[in-house]
Amino acid sequence: MRVPKVAPRFLVPALVSAVIAGSATLSAPAAAKKPAVDEATAATHKAFLEAIKEGSDKYAAKDVSGAIEAFHKAVDLESRNPFGYYFLGEAEVGDRDLAQAESAWLHASQVSDDGPPSL
User: Fold this and answer.
1) How far apart are CA 17 and CA 5, in angstroms?
2) Residue 48 to residues 2, 5, 12, 43, 84, Cα–Cα distance (Å)
3) Whose CA is closest to 104, among 78, 62, 65, 75?
4) How many CB atoms lie within 10 A of CB 85?
5) Are 93 and 101 contacting, i.e. CB atoms less than 8 angstroms apart?
6) Is a pLDDT exceeding 60 seen at residue 113?
7) What three-state secondary structure class fits 97?
8) In the chain, what are the domain boundaries?
9) How far apart are CA 4 and CA 28, in angstroms?
10) pTM of the model
11) How far apart are CA 58 and CA 81, in angstroms?
12) What's the CA gap between 87 and 79, in Å, rounded?
């Protein structure tokens, strides 16, 4: 089976937009129930979202190695956030490295909570 070098250009940017929009939408009701996060945590999460956006932009521009690097940065920032690993896996598929993609997605499933599946 031949794997395309780069997946459709709309897939990853659309998912990133959904994650960022969902993060903003879901944080308002959650903020009412949970105490506000400290500034350092908020800054780290913002940097995580920016790294995801950077990776998505590079992926859409067919800079797969740059996208992988950006998604690794996101994973380093929030190692318990499965979305970083998911997007890293998508970029690895674009680089035709299916073993690394599978590893990233397996890691995403291991760090995600026991709630409803999101990936």
Assistant:
1) 23
2) 32, 26, 16, 9, 8
3) 75
4) 25
5) yes
6) yes
7) coil
8) 51-112
9) 39
10) 0.69
11) 21
12) 13
Asked whether the predicted pLDDT for residue 85 surpasses 70, the reply is yes
* Residue partners of 98: CB distance under 8 A and separation at least 6: 3, 92
What are 44-66's pLDDT values in tens digits? Answer: 999 999 999 999 999 999 999 99
Amino acid, res. 79? S
In three-state secondary structure terms, 61 is coil
51-112 CATH pick, 3.10.290.10, 2.40.128.50, 1.25.40.10, 3.30.450.40? 1.25.40.10
Rounded distance between C-alpha atoms, residue 87 and residue 117, angstroms: 16
What percent of the residues of the chain are helix, what percent strand, and what percent coil, each to the nearest 5? Answer: 70, 0, 30
